[in-house]
Amino acid sequence: MVQALPYLRESASQTAGPYVHIGLAPGAAGFHTFETELGQTLAPEGVPGPRVTIEGQVFDGLGVPIKDVLIEVWQADANGIYPHPEDPRAADCAPGFRGWGRVISDFDSGLFRFETIKPGPVPGRAGREQAPHLNLWLVSRGINIGLNTRMYFPEDTAAHAADPVLGSIEQRARVATLIATATGPSTYRFDIRLQGEGETVFIDV
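Request: output the structure for the sequence above.
Response:
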């Protein structure tokens, strides 16, 4: 049995901000270290697929916008293919498509905004097709462990009914927290609520 030494104490904990921006997105933190930062462009011009713009805010339990959020976006291309070795169809992914990017909220308003292409349906386990969606991972000041969630598109109602992830949510009223709102022909609003009324569904991955 290993016995703790009496002079060793538990080290202090540290939340994700503000150092997360210095390390992952230094330009947003005011450090112009790189000419081009990793993850700024999800889908370069020329990548096939309908282009969409998503914007929103992340709210705390009191309904106050969090203004220092970093969001990583992971997605498939317009044919539902991920540019990742674990996708057996990766070789057929759209040329130039990265499928990953980092988004920083505005430090004054907390608004985040990014452009990409709308993904196609993705094959799931046991042959169950997943509706078109974006995978989101977010960190900010006050969040000790990054949170995973998804954003679905409101026009894909029929696909939502068969989606295995949406179908696994026991409190059916909360499914709506994963579905964006269309604000124009190719623009969407997606707000994320960390706690309280309308709390977003987060996924344990």
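The mean pLDDT is 88.
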